[in-house]
Amino acid sequence: MGEAASTIEVKVVGIKRKTSDVGPWEEFTGILEQKRVECSEQRKKSLRARYLYGILFLLANLVAWCVRDYGQMVSPQLHYLKACGVEGQDCFHTMGVLRVSLGCFIFFFIMFLTTCKTSKLYETRNTWHSRWWSLKFIILVVSLIIPFFVPSDFVQLYGELARVGAGVFLLLQLISIIEFITWWNNYWMPDERRKQSCSLGLFTSTVFYIASVCGIGVMYSLYAPRPSCILNIFFITWTAILLVVMMVISLHSKVNRGLLSSGIMASYIVFLCWSAIRSEPATEKCSPKEHENGHGDWTTVLGFIIAIGAIVIATFSTGIDSQTFQFRKNDIQQDDDIPYKYGFFHLIFSLGAMYFAMLFISWNLDSSARKWSIDVGWASTWVKIVNEWFAATIYLWKLMYPVVRQSKVMDHEEPVQESDNNI
User: Fold this and answer.
1) pLDDT in tens, 125-156
2) Helix or strand or coil: residue 337?
3) pLDDT band at 349 (very low <50, low <70, confident <90, very high)
């Protein structure tokens, strides 16, 4: 009996020791699970915040449109503002758009300065980025009002700087789009484990090339109906040449990047060419657009709404694509890391404020645009054409750079091998 009792006591003591050992571990795992849940909630709030900032940016676009097209209705009430000039002339049309753009730029630049160093979800700056919407809305309203008290000379200077900022925005947008096309091409690259992906990628590339060729044909028929439309013929023909060059280089044995990426890029530059020709003034004889009376029909209104939506989507998609512009892309993502770079996000939106200002005034600081029009004029046409050529140049360089780099490495290795043989 004594031995049995002693063995029972030993077992009881062993069980107590095991339970005492398990207790702290369970408590530790519970703390980790709770922290993981909190990080997940913070991450969801951060991701939802992106769309709220997009809504605020959309509101700023709508305010700029209202000030440009209908600001003269409240001009008698602006006579007491010295910055607005005689009868408030400097607070609507082109100057009004620049003032709203300046206010939007101020708001998002403040957000950039206050969130640019955020890296973890538990930081105070993450709370400021994802919450306090009532306060941020008040800051936005104040930022939009302040420029209407700023002298016109300063606003004119901001307009000159906005041209540069809008150009930088277009460059970043191009890089983001090309990186997305590259990712898409790599995803659909031929793979033995994904035979369906290969066939689907071939089908997709065929569709893009057919759409590009059809687009060029439609542009010839609509925008170059007669031999006197030399400029439009040049634009469309050069776009077709770029399409062929991209296809040939993509299929070259040393490049061998397939047809999908070049097909998508061909459709994109055809779209840019079409958009550029569409931006030509309606008074041109090679433009099929009818002379508008300033009120606009339902197609003009619909196109205007789609254009504003495109501005917001382009700014939003570029802002969340911070990984494309990182020098170190192999960092392991931790649970408490922010899902995207807040500083870069707000910086893109501040540049987007300059961009939508240029679109509303058609890149021209000296003339006022018609009602329900956006990005129309010869300045807009040439900006889009240069944007198209620049996009094609970046894409072609991205295709040829690995080959050029490899050839340089081989040329460097050959003298080294010769010297080793001589030794």
Assistant:
1) 888 988 899 999 999 999 999 998 888 889 99
2) strand
3) very high
**Which structure tokens are listed for 398?**
């991205």
* Residue in 113, 98, 112 with CA at minimum distance from that of residue 153: 98
The 3-state DSSP class for residue 373 equals coil
Handedness of CA 13, 16, 22, 27 (dihedral sign): negative
Q: Nearest 5°: phi and psi at 202?
A: -65, -40
Contact present, 288 and 222 (Cβ < 8 Å): yes
Is residue 263 within 8 A of residue 212, CB to CB? The reply is: yes
Beta strands of 342-415 (E only): which ranges? none
DSSP for 271-283, written as a single string: HHHHHHHHTS-TT
- Cβ pair 266, 245 in contact under 8 A: no
The single-letter DSSP state of residue 324 is G
DSSP-based three-state secondary structure for 179 = helix
Instruction: Compute the distance between CA of residue 394 and CA of residue 242 in angstroms, rounded to an integer.
Output: 12
CA angle 314, 65, 273 (to 5 degrees): 45
Distance CA 114, CA 107 (A): 11
What mean pLDDT comes out for the span 292-303?
Answer: 57
- Coil vs helix vs strand at 380: helix
Q: Which residues pair with 410 in a beta bridge?
A: none
Q: Residue 120's beta-bridge partner residues?
A: 337
115 token code pair: 């969130």
**226-to-190, 218, 285 alpha-carbon distances in Å:** 44, 14, 10
Domain ranges of the chain: 2-422
CB 99 within 8 A of CB 67: yes
Residue that is written with structure tokens 């793979």 in the block: 191
| CA gap 339, 290 in Å, rounded | 48
Spatial CB neighbours of 267, under 8 Å, sequence gap ≥ 6 = 208, 211, 212, 215
